Every structure is written in C-alpha cells, then in structure tokens.
Amino acid sequence: MDNGGVAHRKKKGERLPWLDKIVRSHSSISSFACPLGGLVSGYLLDRIGRKKTLMLINVLSIVSWALIAVCSTTNFDLMYTQILIARVIIGIVIGLVSAPASIYSAEIATPKMRGRLTVLTSLSIAVGILLIYSMGYAVPDDFRLVAGLAAGICVLSLALLLFMPESPAWLMSKDREEEAERSLKKIRGYGAYSQRIPEVEKELMRMRDNVLAQRRAGQESFLRLLKQPQVYKPLGIIIGFFGFQQFSGIFVIVVYAAKVSSEASVSMDPFLCTVLIGITRVVATMLVAYVLDTLGRKPPSIFSGVGMLVCMFGLALCSYFPPIESLHWIPTVLILTYIFTSTLGFLTMPFSMLAELFPQAVRGPASGVTVFFTYLMSFCTIKLYPSMVELLGSANVFLIYGAVSLLGVLYVIYVVPETKGKSLQEIEDYFRGMSHGSTPSQEVEEDEVSNLSSESV
C-alpha cells in the first residue's frame, strides 16, 4: 500500500498539514513492521502450512484496508491512529508475504514450469502496485473508497484460496503422505483418481527423499553453521547488495512516487506519473526471467546501476534547473527509465541470488536473516527521505542516491560473484575456497540454479 493510492490530491494553493503529517508517518511505519512479518513467516509456513499462511495474510490485509476505508471523517486524531494501525498491520503482511507465494509456486510446479510460474509472483506484485496507483489516480479525492476497493480484492483472493490445495511438499514434511498424494493428484489434473499414477509416485518419492535430506542437514544449528565460510561469506555479500539496493532510493521512488514526481519538476499530474511508473515496472518485470537466463547476474546489475546513477543525476539537474516548457518531458522520462533499469537489476537480482548463494542446509534461516536486515534498511531510507529533502533539498538527495548507485556498480564488479552456469556445489565450494571441476551431475545442478534463481525474483 503506497501513497499513490491513499493520499488526497492537493488542489492548487491548498494547504493540507494533516496530509503531510500522515504521509511522513505512515510511509515508514509499515517498513518498520516488515521485519517482524519476515521473522514470523518462516514459523507460520512450517507450523500451519502454505495455504493457511496465505489465507491469514489476506485476512490481515482485509482488516488493514477496512480500517482505512472506515476511518473517521471528523476526528483527525482518531483518523491518524486508525491509519497508523492499518499501516502496522500491512507492514507485517508485507513481511509475511515475501516468501509464501513463491515457495508454494516452486513446490507445486514441475521443473520445466517452475521458473515461469514463480516469476508470476513478482509480476503479480507489480500488477498490484499498478492497480493501486491507477485507483489513486482515478479516485484522487477519496482514499477511503480506494481502500474499500482494495479490501474487496483481498476478499476475492481469500475466497479463491479456499479452493486451492495445500502444498504436497509441506504435507509430506509433516508425514501426511495420503493427503500429499491427494493434493498432488489434484494439482496435476488427476482429481479424485484413486489408482496409482506413476508420475505422481515418482514426485512423491522425490519429496520424501528431500524431506529426509533436509532433516539430516537441519541437525546442526544455524549459529554453528554460520562460522563456516560458505555461509558467512555469501551472507555478507548479499546483505551488502541489498544495502546498495535500499540506499540507492529504489523503494523511496516506489513509496513516494507522487511526491518525488513533484520534486523532480515533472509537469504532468504526479498521480498520472505514478501510473506510468507502475506500467513501467510491470513491463520490466516481464523481462527479468529472460535477462536472468541469458545474460547472467552481473551484466544486468551493472547496466542497472549505471542507468540508475544517470537518471538520478539527471533528476538532480532538473531540480536545480527546471526544464523549459519544450523540455518538460525530461523528468518524466528520467523517472520511468530509473524504474525500468532498477527493476532489471538492483531491484530483482539480490532476491534472485538468495537461493543460489546459500547452501541448502541454511538457505531458509540465512534468507530470513537477510530479509530481516533488508526491511530494517528499507525502514531507514523511507523514514529519512522527507527529512533529507527538508535538510538538503531534493536535488542533493538525488545526487546522494546517484552516488550510492555508482558505489553499487563497483560493488557488483569487484565483490558480487557471477553464478550463471555454475552448479550449486560449485558456488558453495567457491565460498569455501576450494576448486571444483565438472561432475556428472553438473547439468542437473545448472538447471536447478536456473530454476531457483527464477523462483526468487
């Protein structure tokens, strides 16, 4: 839930101090709650399953949007409190939803379909953001109506989840093999077919073997494994990558889309600009899978960082020297190009590499720790942005984001490893400091790397 969908549009010359207060507070409060959701999601996924976790997420989303939809129209303090509570809830939801949908998609998909299916998760997020932007543009003066419509979408999602089977992999991990078989048959299109299906039997056998392997790997604690170089090295690298992602202003642009558009001297309606931002992100997300599979990780990230710094320096110039009437389109193009280039690299690559860099034994907890720190950094950047603009001016803030993007490019060049074409074992041995030659299973492992990287976007 971003400002593009819930903020009133100011009329020319109109002062809305209550709006400024809400925007400054609720834009960062959800990011503050995100780490809590991230920490809880792992427990819920294992405890109650994928389906019930997704249902809980929708219930919490309905409560959050409903609070905004019915917030007070006469008592500012009450309205302010209701919106803040809603933002805390939706922040927890954002942390919760970071993993379940992708994990469920990965667990039910066949190997050939896994990458494309899990990319739909990222595409759905981009489409959802575009939908909220569009509603904010279409109904600029009634954020309560926008919130009510969003709550209705969550109700529809919750209703559809009732017909969704539970993940067979999770059921197998809980030793509920008969339920896992029924669920897998339904997912594969066999319905209530009672006879044994060879393909289903093979999948169930692989699930059973994976569960046994994970249980053996999980016997050693995460803290003990953290002392090993193949764990702490990738953990440090990926957290650093996420740090450059956050402090380059990517999520600031997403959250403060309308505000940034105004500060960058965009001549068009800033709410219309947010809609164009949403469309750009959807298009770029559709290209991510192709970029991952053909160009690897480092080249797109370098291109992304260079594009981001050029756009930020350009926006700084537009803030210092507002374009003349005939060039009023330049800030809009710069913002849209920034969104496009960031989505191709810095926005998506850190998430895609989470599944590649960590060994299987610590992939879950290590990813959780990484997401926790990522959301903490996100809170800091979103919370500090309004104060930075007041203290330094928007032009200097854009320059800072551009400088961070430049440092991020250097970080990718000299620190982030290229994982395209490498097996998971080769990546693990790289961090362990060993050389690893080709193995008979390398082709299988390479296919697994490709699938896992697509799952994380």
Automatic annotation (TrEMBL):
Region (Disordered): 435-457
Residue intervals passing through the bilayer: 57-78, 84-105, 117-139, 145-164, 235-258, 270-290, 302-322, 328-354, 366-385, 397-416
Subcellular location: Membrane
GO MF, one annotated term: transmembrane transporter activity
Keyword Lipoprotein: no
Membrane topology qualifier: Multi-pass membrane protein
Keywords: Glycoprotein, Membrane, Transmembrane, Transmembrane helix, Transport
InterPro entries xrefs: MFS_dom, MFS_sugar_transport-like, MFS_trans_sf, MFS_Trehalose_Transporter, Sugar/inositol_transpt
Oxidoreductase as UniProt keyword: no
Xref: PROSITE patterns: MFS
Pfam families per the UniProt record, alphabetical: Sugar_tr
GO CC terms of this entry: membrane
Positions of the Major facilitator superfamily (MFS) profile domain: 1-420
Gene3D superfamilies (UniProt xref): MFS general substrate transporter like domains
NCBIfam families per UniProt: SP (TIGR00879)
Xref: PANTHER family: FI02132P-RELATED, PTHR48021
Family, similarity comment: Belongs to the major facilitator superfamily. Sugar transporter (TC 2.A.1.1) family.
Protein name as catalogued: Major facilitator superfamily (MFS) profile domain-containing protein
Organism name: Anopheles melas
Lineage: Eukaryota, Metazoa, Ecdysozoa, Arthropoda, Hexapoda
